[in-house]
Each structure stands twice: as structure tokens, then as C-alpha cells.
Amino acid sequence: MSGIVESAGRTAGQGAELSEGYAGQVGTLRRALLDAALEVFTERGYSDAGLTEIATRSGIPVGSLFQHYGGKQGLYLALWEEFREEQERRTAATLTVERDRGVDDPVTLFVAGARAYLEGAWDNRRLGRLFAEDDGPSGFDALRRQWDRAWVRRNARLLEVDERRRAGRVRVSVLTTVIGGAARELGDCGDETEAGEIVDEVCGILVHLSVPPG
């Protein structure tokens, strides 16, 4: 009896190790596919990008690409999700640090979050340039508008703006549009110094525009 128990225990342990190893392999495979997709999308645009070329650059068969992402649209949307989540994570982390320091002024917090977002746009500028182009899968524009509306609502809460008042909603929408436009400009910056100047300039504009009239 003890021999069976010991054997089962070893099998279970080996199974866990195999499971962890498999998860690591899958993560590596997906990373390779996404990196290759970003290269091809950036060079050729979404419409002209070919799955065969993406698979070739990643060193992974086309069949595996379909298995993990279902095709070109799935790759594009996975890149978008990665970019969006990283921007939200970076902004949230900055706000946490500021609040832990005792900062509670809505405008100060908003501008700190905007700076984090813009710095992330510079760090991830290849993705930013990709999503700024009017060349994505069917339905992507609607998805981006949905995210933009959620972004405006988050900024309204951060600025403690009464969303029931049209003037307040418009002000937050304008501020959010300024950040988005600056993020697109950062994608074309020549170097980090120029990018830093733009971030500083935009944050100064946001301070001025964020203060409620009167």
C-alpha cells in the first residue's frame, strides 16, 4: 500500500512540474508571436500584414498561431489589451504612490496620473504608433471609443467632477483628448529629451485647464 501511495505522490509532483513547464513554454510561445506580430504590423500595417510572415519571424508554425490567437485579429487585440493594461497599471501605481505620500488634491493627482500615462506612451511608443493608425481589425474603432469613454469617466472621478453637469463632462473630455493627442505625438519623437519636453509642456497645460472656472 505504501508503495502505491509513494508512487502516486511522485506522479502528482511530476505532474505539477510538467504543468509549470508547459505554462512557461506557452508564455514564451505567445510572447514570440506577439513580438513578431508587432514587427509586421508596424512595418506593413494591419491590412497588409500576413500570417505566414508573422509565423516565420516568430519561428512558430501557423497552426500554433491559430491555436493561441485565432488569427491576425486576435494578435492585434492581444497587443491592444497588453498596451491598455500596462498603461492602466502604470497610472494606478503612480496614484497609489502619490496618495501614500499624502497627496489628495484632485488636480495634482490627475496631472501625476497623466504624466505616468504619457511616459508609458513614450516607453511603449511602437504600440502607441500602431494603435494611432486608422488601420485595425473590424470593430476596433468601436472598442477604442468604448475604452476612451471609460477613461473619461475615470478622469472625472479623479478630478471629482460632477458628471451630471454638461460643462464638467466637456472639461474632462477635453483634458482626456489633450492627453491622447500628446501620447500620439510622443510616438514620433526623435529622442528621450524631446519626449520629456513634450510631457512637461502637456502637464503644464493640464494644470492650467484642470482648474474649474471661477
From TrEMBL:
Residue spans binding DNA: 50-69
Top-rank taxon, per record: Bacteria
Residue ranges of every copy of the HTH tetR-type domain listed in the record: 27-87
GO MF annotations, alphabetized: DNA-binding transcription factor activity; transcription cis-regulatory region binding
InterPro entries cross-referenced by the UniProt entry: Homeodomain-like_sf, HTH-type_TetR-like_transc_reg, HTH_TetR
Entry keyword set: DNA-binding, Transcription, Transcription regulation
Entry-linked SUPFAM superfamilies: Homeodomain-like
Pfam families named among the record's database cross-references: TetR_N
Protein name: HTH tetR-type domain-containing protein
